[in-house]
Amino acid sequence: xxxxxxxxxxxxxxxxxxxxxxxxxxxxxxxxxxxxxxxxxxxxxxxxxxxxxxxxxxxxxxxxxxxxxxxxxxxxxxxxxxxxxxx
Amino acid sequence: xxxxxxxxxxxxxxxxxxxxxxxxxxxxxxxxxxxxxxxxxxxxxxxxxxxxxxxxxxxxxxxxxxxxxxxxxxxxxxxxxxxxxxxxxxxxxxxxxxxxxxxxxxxxxxxxxxxxxxxxxxxxxxxxxxxxxxxxxxxxxxx
Lengths: 87, 143
Description:
Chain A is an all-alpha fold. In chain A, 72% of the residues lie in helices and 0% in strands. Chain A has three helices and no strands. A five-stranded mixed β-sheet of chain B has the order 3-2-1-5-8, with no helix packed on it. By secondary structure, chain B is of the alpha+beta class. The A-B interface holds A 23, 26-27, 30-37, 39-41, 43, 46-47, 50, 54 and B 16, 19, 22-23, 26-27, 30, 32-39, 74, 92-95, 109-110, 112.
């Protein structure tokens, strides 16, 4: 546990704090020309890929679970509790 | 514990956390980039009031309901309101920011195409909200 806390503290010092400092400092310098449409819609499409991938995996898992573990499935076997009749 | 293996659950939790981190970091970074105003951006003061938009350029030129800009130049909007909350939107250039009384909100953009584009209030602000519109007119440099 102490090791994990130690590693976390080191990461905080070596990575997170300099990153925050770099990002805050960047706000003081001038920005570059960009097309908001490209940047914003690009972000939207990337996040949609994440959202639909997660949605597909989660709904697919639920469908598989419902079908695989329904009582009428030929492969369904009673749990150890159901087999022994005692809980 | 039932004694079954829990590694699939931990993998699942790890993947979810990683995806959430990716989504948060990516959105935060893009927001940081688009808020970064170019040095030579011209400031245009935008004022919303029931139910018109007024614009004031750096040289003092004022426009009502129409905004003339040059293609390829950067513009920083300083948006405020005189009465209730409005929302300044140029749909074609993905510009959308609230106009709040007593507060100046800023957003910048650089038009890339010559033409006329709609400006519309996107915050319900009263009876004529639906018609609180304007026109963004993008012209070639020197036109």
